[in-house]
Amino acid sequence: MGALTIIHTAGRHNCGARCSFTVCVKDGTIQKISFEPEKTPCVKYCLRGHHYLDTLLSDKRLLYPMRRTGARGEGLFERISWDEALKIIAAEWKRITGTYGPGSRYINYSSGVAAVARPDVFAKRLAALDGGYLGYYNSYSTACTKIATEYVYGTYFSGNSSIFLEKSKLIILWAHNPRETLFGAYLMDELRRAKKQGTRIIVIDPRRSATARCLIENVTEKGACLKLKMLPKL
After folding, report:
1. Which pLDDT score, from 0 to 100, does residue 233 have?
2. Which of 26, 90, 129, 233 is most buried (most C-beta within 10 Å)?
3. pLDDT single digits (tens) 26-69
4. What is the DSSP letter of 40?
5. How many CB atoms lie within 10 A of CB 59?
6. d(CA 189, CA 42)
7. For the chain, which ranges sit under pLDDT 50?
8. What is the signed CA dihedral for 136, 140, 143, 146, rounded to 10 degrees?
9. Phi/psi of residue 101, each to 5°?
10. How far is Cα 117 from Cα 159, in angstroms, rounded to an integer?
């Protein structure tokens, strides 16, 4: 048995924060994920990163192909070989395409990792070699931002780091609740810092969100202002 090794790394979820972690590794396997707040006090990592061992690194994840043997929903499966799985997939690929056409093949957005080697990109290239596929445009994440940004700035390639929020005179959080969604490890601290310096913050939300409550409760410095206005029901 090998010795326990301590590795300092970061989270890889799609929030952009890259929160720092301390990982204990033994024999090539992660044994524990921990966080040392005294070393990085400004980083408050969330439950997504804390539970990597139960999700991305879980021993319950599938390691080989499985074929359903019972009725849908029964949870009955049997292990099959990779060659057998490929033959089944190829047969179904041909049957569906021959029956319904290339438009019946849809590669979903964000169906894999956001890296250079992306499974969804490979799937599109494969389908394109065999007649095409049903595509999509825009994304569920930044669809409205992408359209509006080009009108405001003339290009989609714009934006700024949240560290400059404290230089703003007005911040509008439109249906944005970073206190709960944890969009980055630093955003709430930066919002509080901006408010302390007198920045006006407006939260537009159908409910009194945790972000709004957190910022209201911390209105103690002179000039800080957060306004909530309850709109009438439609």
Report:
1. 44
2. 26
3. 888 888 887 766 665 555 566 777 777 787 778 788 899 999 99
4. S
5. 8
6. 8
7. 219-234
8. -100
9. 90, 170
10. 26
* Residue type present at position 20: S
Q: How many residues does the chain have?
A: 234
Give me the residue spans of the domains in the chain. 5-54, 66-128, 160-227
Q: Tell me what pLDDT residue 15 has.
A: 64
Mapped onto helix, strand or coil, the DSSP state of residue 58 is: coil
Here the tokens at position 111 are: 């169906």
Q: And the tokens for 104?
A: 């019946």
Closest CA to 65 of 42, 90, 48, 82: 82
DSSP 10: E
**Concatenated DSSP letters for 59-106?**
TTS--S-EEE-SSTTS--EEE--HHHHHHHHHHHHHHHHHHH-GGG-B
Q: What pLDDT is stored for residue 59 in this prediction?
A: 79
User: What is the model's pTM?
Assistant: 0.59
Helix (H) or strand (E) holding 226, with range, is strand 225-227
Tokens 């709430």, located at residue: 188
CATH topology of domain 160-227: Dimethylsulfoxide Reductase; domain 2 (3.40.228)
Q: Is 165 helix (H, G, I), strand (E, B) or coil?
A: helix
- Cα separation, 87 vs 89, whole angstroms: 6
Tokens 């707040």 belong to residue:
37
Which helix (H) or strand (E) segment is 191 a member of? helix 187-196
